[in-house]
Design a protein that fits this description.
This protein has two domains: 167 residues, Triger factor/SurA peptide-binding fold (Orthogonal Bundle); 104 residues, Chitinase A, domain 3 (Roll). The chain contains ten helices and nine strands. A four-stranded antiparallel beta sheet has the order 5-4-7-6, with helices on one face.
């Protein structure tokens, strides 16, 4: 589990939201209990409000996505309490100099904000406290993750299990003749361009030089190179083109294909098969990825273990139902 990102605006928003919730906290219903620590419904609502603003900024989200985020925020709040308790038990201390540096950056960033000016005196203490907590959590996470150091046997096992990550994809050397058409052109114009492309295809198949025709007719940037686009791999070609090229043998051309820019003819001039790089060539990369995987696993297991050591109660009635 990852804690929510510590963005400037999110930290300030959360501090202000928590400040607003404090007055009503005494009467607030209990959302969850983590050992002897209570998370009030107001605390949860404030955290969820900030999280939802960061995630759902394009309008009203599907109800199931809201339900998932509700649970995620609840789990993160529980984990935060457990992790802060663990950090304190380990004697970790926040970096006071870094905290002050960050607070100064907030002061500069929000200097012109009327909301900041109005709430600054009240918002600064909870903001500083939250920054100190974030620093403690960061130290703890770094310590836990750094313990994950795969040996060479484990790195080789990762390489063997994830060979697709170390495989250079198939590459095709492709040439093109593009007959450009304005997207807003009439259907008659598009039809005429298609007919021209088909006519060019017949001329090439009858023996005319593809490169010469590309220099004369193509509107693509590769025209002066005879249409040569160099070596490309899947994902670099327009939608639908990859499938057409996969059916061609070296030297063959495609039928007229409609693209966003117009109609095109593609010629396959060479094909390089996908190639798995040997372990020695990608050892450093494999070690980085294996360590990242072990690091994630170590952190997830660490948080899960902390949860087994402390009684946790969350009121499920506070959540929207999940879709089945």
């Amino acid at each position: 589990m990852r804690l929510l990102p510590n963005y400037f605006s999110r930290a300030v928003l959360l501090s202000l939201a928590l400040l607003a919730a404090t007055a009503a906290a005494a009467q607030s219903a209990v959302f969850a209990k983590v050992g002897d620590v209570v998370i009030t419904q107001d605390d949860y609502n404030a955290a969820f409000s900030v999280a939802s603003r960061g995630k759902f900024y394009h309008g009203k989200p599907p109800e199931n996505e809201v339900a998932l985020l509700q649970r995620e925020v609840g789990e993160q709040m529980v984990a935060r309490i457990l992790l802060l308790r663990e950090a304190k038990q380990r004697g970790l201390r926040a970096d006071a100099a870094e905290i002050q540096k960050t607070l100064q950056s907030y002061e500069q960033r929000y200097a012109s904000s009327e909301q900041w000016k109005k709430n600054r005196a009240q918002a600064l203490p909870p903001l500083q406290a939250r920054l100190e907590q974030e620093d403690l959590l960061s130290q703890l996470e770094k310590t836990v993750r750094s313990s994950a150091k795969p040996n060479e046997k484990q790195v080789k096992a990762y390489y063997a299990a994830h060979q697709v990550k170390f495989t250079e994809p198939e590459q095709m050397r492709v040439s093109v003749i593009l007959l450009k058409v304005d997207p807003s052109a009439t259907s008659a114009t598009w039809k005429k361009s298609d007919e021209q492309a088909q006519a060019l295809a017949k001329r090439v198949r009858a023996g005319e030089d593809f490169a010469a025709l590309a220099r004369q007719h193509s509107g693509d940037g590769s025209a002066q190179q005879g249409g040569d686009m160099g070596y490309l791999h899947s994902g670099m070609l327009p939608e639908g083109t990859q499938e057409a090229l996969s059916k061609l043998k070296t030297g063959e051309i495609s039928d007229s294909l409609r693209l966003l820019e117009g109609f095109a003819l593609f010629r396959l001039t060479d094909r390089k098969a996908a190639q798995l790089h040997g372990f020695d060539a990608v050892k450093v990369r494999a070690q980085e990825l294996a360590q990242r995987e072990q690091s994630d696993a170590a952190w997830t297991a660490f948080v899960a273990e902390l949860k087994t050591k402390t009684p946790i109660q969350i009121d499920p009635s506070r959540f929207l139902p999940l879709a089945r």
